[in-house]
Design brief:
By secondary structure, the protein is mainly alpha-helical. It has helices at about 1-25, 30-40, 55-75, 80-110, 115-125, 130-140, 145-175, 175-200, 200-210, 215-235, 240-250, 250-280, 290-315, 320-330, 335-345. The model has no long low-confidence stretch (mean pLDDT about 80).
Length: about 350
Amino acid sequence: MHSAIQLIELGAIILALGLLGAVANRFSISAIPLYLIAGLAFGSGGVLPLGASEEFVAIGAEVGVILLLFTLGLEYTAGELVGTLRTSAPSGLADLVLNAAPGVIAAFLLGWGPVAAVAMGGVTYVTSSGITAKVMGDLGWLGNRETPAVLSILVFEDLAMAAYLPILTALLAGASLAAGATTLGIAAATIAVILLIALRHGALVERFVASPNDEVLLLKVLGLVVLVAGLAQQLQVSAAVGAFLVGIALSGPLAHTAQELLSPLRDLFAAVFFVFFGLHTDPGDLPPVLGAAALLAVAGTATKLASGWIAARRVGVGTTGRMRAGAALVPRGEFNIVIAGLAVAAGIN
């Protein structure tokens, strides 16, 4: 009976996502806000909480982020990534300063202390790579001139998270400086190894996964992406960063074929990813903090627009493209929730 309930809930979720997607297409808008609202309605404290399928939804959400970042990585070569990172360091640092500041300032104004300030700085700093990748794909922005600038900011932020999360975890746990430095060193070494393989041995990776049979190619690529993402996360690096770098390692016709094969799975699990956020948010918890959240939202939107403007201007993009770049960077998501969850679990205000 329990398995039957799981199937019913899962079928209802997927069907509802399809209907919401149809509504979004009808009005030419992104379906993401509708997916988030659906999650609020059917999650903890919602009108009809769904519990039996929670484990599948949680795993599906992780797979959704991994596939979103992998397919984003397929759009670029390893050489383009390195070149972009070299030229975008000033934009990435400006993004860091502009967007960490609202969270840090808010924490001190609210009297939460320095550790909470470090956590809040992370919450307001990092853009959701998953949401941004999905929105840019939905709106047909992936081929725009400002897209490499947006991508450079996303990559800079994800790599910054690889350094930030071990430090935050050590601070929250009251760990020693040596323990925090060890964790950070492991994370940095993991990123270096994955990036080196993508840069120097991408052809070997391509030969390993290549197959004339679409089914075999799909299974090889999907298995490799999820495996590397899991190993990266185990070694204190974001799974999203690992998946993105695997996408960078593949190029040419193989990348095009892989993208076509994985697109339906990406769209399915990406939708589940956005529903997952809503399912784990109790609507009753929102009213008391809406005022502070609204102020941070306004400040965070302004600072991300500024970040996108600066990054796009540096590569010679016009005014409209600069605004699109800023708008693409506004969404927050997976990292922000992880950071807040770590702080709450550690007993920070």
